[in-house]
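Hi there,

I know you've been waiting on this one. I reran it after we fixed the sequence typo, so this is the corrected version. Both the input and the resulting structure follow.
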Amino acid sequence: MFDASAWARRGQLSGGARGRGEAVFLRDGAHEYVLRHYRRGGLPGRFIRDHYLWTGLQRTRAWREWHLTAELYVRGLPVPRPVAARVEHHGLWYRADLITLRIPAARSLAQALAGNALDVAQWQAIGHCLRRFHDAGLYHADLNAHNILLSGDEVFLIDFDRGRLRADGAWRRRNLERLLRSLRKLYNDAIDFAFREEDWQALLAGYGPHSALTASA
C-alpha cells in the first residue's frame, strides 16, 4: 500500500505533486489517492532525508497529521479524506507515510495563477475558506499557495503536517501573512504569475473582520 514502486509496476501511478514531502498520485479502480512520504526540508534535509527522532507513536508526524486531518474532516471542513498512515520505527529513528483521498479535478492556487487571473468572487471564496479553518482553531504550519486547492467552485486546504488546533489569537494574522509572502514570492519569481495586491484585499474581504488582523495583513 505504501510502496510507490509497487503501484508503478501495476500501472497505477498517475503523477506527482509539489508539497511538504514527496507526493505521488495513485489509481485503484474508481478511486484516486495521494501517497506522501515524509521528507525533511531545509538544511537538515541535506543530511537526514527522511528519518525523524522517535519519541513515541503519538508524537510522530504521520500519526498527528492523520488524526488532525480526520478531526477536520469529521467537522465538515474542506480537507482530503485521510485513508491510512504508516510509521516504521527502527531504533532511535522512524520513517513515515500518509495516504489521503485525492480531490478530483483539483489544482493548487499556485497552478491556477500561472498565467491566469482569478476573479474577485474566487479570491473572496478563498478568504472565506480560510476563515472557516481559523474559526475552528486550525493553525496551518505551512499555509502557502501550493497548499490551497481549487476544484470547480470549491476551495480546499491540504498538508496539515505540524499543524494543530489552537485557541484564538494573533496566529491568525501570522498565518495569513505567511500566505501573502508565498504569493509575493511566486509573483517575483515568475513573469506570468497573475497576482495583484488588489487580489489580496479581495481575499481579506472574504475572510471578514477579526480583531487579530491588522491593516498590514
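Quick highlight: The chain has a mean pLDDT of 92.

Best,
R. S.
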